[in-house]
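Quick question: what would this complex look like in 3D?
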Amino acid sequence: MTYPGSRIVSLGHYQPSKILTNDDLAAMVDTSDEWIRTRVGIQTRRIAESDETVADMAAAAAEKALAASGLTPADIDTVVVATCSSADRSPNVACRVADRLGIPSPAAYDINTACSGFCYGLATVDHAIRAGASQRALVIGAEKLSAITDWTDRSTCVIFGDAAGAAVVVPAETPQSVGIGPVVWGSDPERSHAVRIEGWQPFIQQEGQQVFRWATTQLAPIAQEACRRAGVDPSELAGFVPHQANLRIIEAIARKLGAPNAVIARDIVESGNTSAASIPVALSKIIERREIPTGAPVLLFGFGGGLTYAGQVIRCP
Amino acid sequence: MTREEIQNGLSEILEEVAGVNPDDVSEEKSFTEDLEVDSLSMVEVVVAAEEKFGVKIPDDAVQDLRTVGDAITFIEKAAA
């Protein structure tokens, strides 16, 4: 059976309890609270325990999203995990999450488009539901970036954190109830060198100025295109949840997007940059705080390593 | 464009993007050390300068623009 579209019914998120402050970092490398706040806007980030895995965090977030949906594990037929920091290549994180939650036989796959991963995952699940290949899906963004951070590199170690966020996606039975708009996705392979996680025991490396320039000059028109494809004017957006890369990038894109009525996600301040987890975590917290009414349009917009990007307007669950 | 015209244009950009007092801007001043323009604001200055002067300043070139004079020379050559 095919459907006119799909919608998010619930979200959940998980963050490790250990908090790393800017002052903690200043004791490790040559930096300061003031330097970090003015460059990237981060005050704290969460760091996983050494034996805590991407799959552990993904399962914890998925469990919460599933509980909030009212569905049971047996209802889920598809599990997608967006991550670029899982230590193991196989089994993939999606299979581990399914095992942990007791989901009996789902289609289970990981995707890696780094920081844009959640929006890519949401798009693939939306398409699978439209095509009739899936009916009840979990889409998860989960990262343990602390494991691939060079803790001696002051330009990168202040940025990243660990987290997971998950969404339950179901069919929209009628065109009126469609809650995930058309995806606008793409990449900029010419700039692939700007963010790198290379080799078997890698560290994240990035060309900060190049990424900042790309993000602040190239992305706002793409975000506007996602609104146009959904038939929503940016001024009508009730929320804008971009990848939590850097507060100055978030504010620059928001300004150029022109969404004066939108709640702008700024979870980076307390969570740092958690790559594929940042959008579902920020959205889950906004919903938990009831900052956006059910049914209101929210633009999700992921961008980062690749360089890749993807965005879509959703209806707030 | 004369060097003075370029410097005046840069002063306007520096004031708008990074809050630099135009009186502090002169050729020998370093963007980061003297004018306290951080690395990300420097990118914003470069993007605004490209627009204002109709030139291309590639990512690789930005590293070499240490002083206001370096930027004026780059823009002067690029616009010629």
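Answer marked as accepted. Residues 177-315 of chain A form a domain with the Peroxisomal Thiolase; Chain A, domain 1 fold (CATH 3.40.47.10).
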